[in-house]
Amino acid sequence: MNCTKCKTRAVIRLPRHNAAFCKNCFNGFVHDQVARAIKSEKMFEKDDRILIAVSGGKDSLALWDILLKLGYRADALYVNLGIGGYSEQSHAKVTKFGEVVSASYGVTLHLHMLEQEAGTGIRELAQFAHRPTCSACGTIKRYQFNRVAIDKHYDVMATGHNLDDEAARLLGNILHWQDEYLDKQGPSLPASVEGFAKKVKPLYRLSERELAAYAVLNRIDYIVEECPMAKGSKMLQYKEVLNRLETESPGTKQTFYWGFLEKQSKKQPSATTMSEKDQAILQPCSSCSQPTTAEVCSYCKMMARAKGGFSGEQAARL
Amino acid sequence: MNCTKCKTRAVIRLPRHNAAFCKNCFNGFVHDQVARAIKSEKMFEKDDRILIAVSGGKDSLALWDILLKLGYRADALYVNLGIGGYSEQSHAKVTKFGEVVSASYGVTLHLHMLEQEAGTGIRELAQFAHRPTCSACGTIKRYQFNRVAIDKHYDVMATGHNLDDEAARLLGNILHWQDEYLDKQGPSLPASVEGFAKKVKPLYRLSERELAAYAVLNRIDYIVEECPMAKGSKMLQYKEVLNRLETESPGTKQTFYWGFLEKQSKKQPSATTMSEKDQAILQPCSSCSQPTTAEVCSYCKMMARAKGGFSGEQAARL
Fold first, then answer.
1. Residues within 8 A of A (CB atoms), B 234-253 only
2. Distances (CA, A) of B161 to A37, B20, B206, B238, B273
3. Given CB atoms, is A255 within the 8 Å cutoff of chain B?
């Protein structure tokens, strides 16, 4: 099997593009897909300051690597959720990678330790707050990510969501016809209101498998295990069935997600309406000032509810 | 496990309805779902003459049984496609069932024998016409079904498509964003133009498993095997992945397909536009007079192309 581009020996075959690449041409392909995503979705410009949410997984570390190699100014934030050995390992991978890129590019890795802030890890916190763990985790990560972006004046927040993530999420939203979520499924969400940073997903044109290959080929040391809390999750089920269909018909995920984006782009008016709608209903949280649709934001509510489950000393820290 | 309704011993559990039924209450449930489908989608009235497309499978024979028991006037058409032992078996099942209901209700079973008309079965015919077998089969069945409906003055044609069929088709259309097909995915399609009969799917509220149980409990003898031509088809793949999701979350298919119908019903204007659009582009086929968007309809085109592959004697019959 030879490289479609330079005819030397290929290291990866991409059935959905009917192509095969050597390491160099594959890196070129990956960088090109990200550059196209950034440009076509107007994600950010060369002088924008970007904050990447990193987890220690292949996608977010590859994203950091790619953006720096493409010449962008990108720092990162890691939220340690206190999930025992899993968090310890992912934290170590992030720190190690952060040291390397700090030395080469002078960028910063911000850390947020949930256990230091809340006195306990996500499992116990979610239990005290009577929330499913994955939902509590999402609230915390979104909150901290946005807080750091606003406090440190980043222009845009970037996440490592890939084509598989977005296609799976789209499938879930469509199976339940969640119109409101469908409207917000684009890879570039504007800063809808003061206090909410712009959010982008520069990896939406690359599959999970392509990003794993990129990480391996470029010696990015990432945590391979899925989060132990996510076992049996709906998202993983949707990914599995889409992989099943992709194997039979390469390109299924791409046709599905990109086709959706094209369809959405044709009904532009509702996108602006969405932003206007958000602006009309958002207000500062009475406790922390982040934008929220309620009197108190869901993060502060959750933390307050969790407080009830803590002992005196722990509760005092919240 | 007791019947949710009458508390006697249940014979079937329906996780998506969070219910279990004895034979009698299950039959009542099935009849009720069909009656609701007919009423809510304005499919037909008590004095309409209905033509059912029967294949020998559980769905179409159950549909015939149910409509007769609900007091409707329903005849049936069976198209024998000449697929060796499979067609022989399904033909036998249909004839046997047809004799029983003819004796009880005085209804008619129409037969169309492809081999008698074309001198060969669907496999050879598709090959000569350079068409995939399933696509050629669809063209033939739609054509003959419509021809008999119009010639014999039926008010409406009914097919045995169930919830699984419709959800799988919807998934396929959505994965590829086939907008035009999405518009025509409702369970009740009006007679868009002179020469095209109205088409309805009264089983769209019942799953494959429920219809199999109905057939077994009511001693309807049907052909259990899938058509040998359909092996590995996309539709079967879509059904498999939806079954996978249904097992994890009962009600997935229903939420998906019914949710889609509800969404479609809200944008009523496009439904009329569709019918108007059809009327504007349809004209009588110059060969057979059935409505078509081209000069010659796809059935006549296929038959003409297939003719080229036949020997003199066979060709003369076409």
1. 234, 237-238, 240-241, 244-245, 248-249, 252
2. 41, 24, 9, 15, 25
3. yes
pLDDT tens digits for range A122-147: 999 999 888 999 999 999 999 999 99
CB distance A244–B245 less than 8 Å?
Answer: no
pLDDT tens digits, chain B, 318 residues: what are they? 999 999 999 999 999 999 999 999 999 999 999 999 999 999 999 999 999 999 999 999 999 999 999 999 999 999 999 999 999 999 999 999 999 999 999 999 999 999 998 888 999 999 988 899 999 999 999 999 999 999 999 999 999 999 999 999 999 999 999 888 888 889 998 887 677 889 999 999 999 999 999 999 999 999 999 899 888 889 999 999 999 999 999 999 999 999 999 998 887 555 555 566 666 788 889 999 888 888 999 999 888 887 765 555 555 555
Size (chain A), residues:
318
Distance from CA of A10 to the nearest CA of B (A): 30
Residue A37 near residue A205, CB atoms below 8 Å: yes
Assign residue B190 a region: left if phi > 0, alpha if psi is -120 to 50, beta otherwise?
Answer: beta
Chain B residues close to A173, C-beta within 8 Å = none
Nearest to A30 by CA among A203, A159, A158, A182: A203
Could you tell me if A57 and A222 are in contact, meaning their C-beta atoms sit under 8 angstroms apart?
Answer: yes
| Cβ–Cβ below 8 Å for B245 and A260 | no
Gyration radius from chain B CA atoms: 20
- Complex-level ipTM: 0.85
CA–CA min distance B177, chain A (Å): 6
Q: Does A46 touch chain B (CB under 8 A)?
A: no
Query: CB-based contact (8 Å) between B180 and chain A?
Result: no
- DSSP letter at B184 equals T
Q: Hey, what are A44's tokens?
A: 């950010």
Instruction: Look at B252 and A174 and tell me if their CB atoms are within 8 Å.
Output: no
**Which ranges in chain B belong to alpha helices (H)?**
23-40, 58-69, 84-105, 114-118, 122-128, 133-151, 163-175, 179-183, 208-217, 234-248, 252-266, 268-281, 298-307, 312-317
Q: Do B176 and A241 touch (CB under 8 A)?
A: no
Scanning every residue of chain B, which has its alpha carbon at the shortest distance from the alpha carbon of A170?
B175
A chain contacts of residue B176, beta-carbon cutoff 8 Å: 255-256, 259
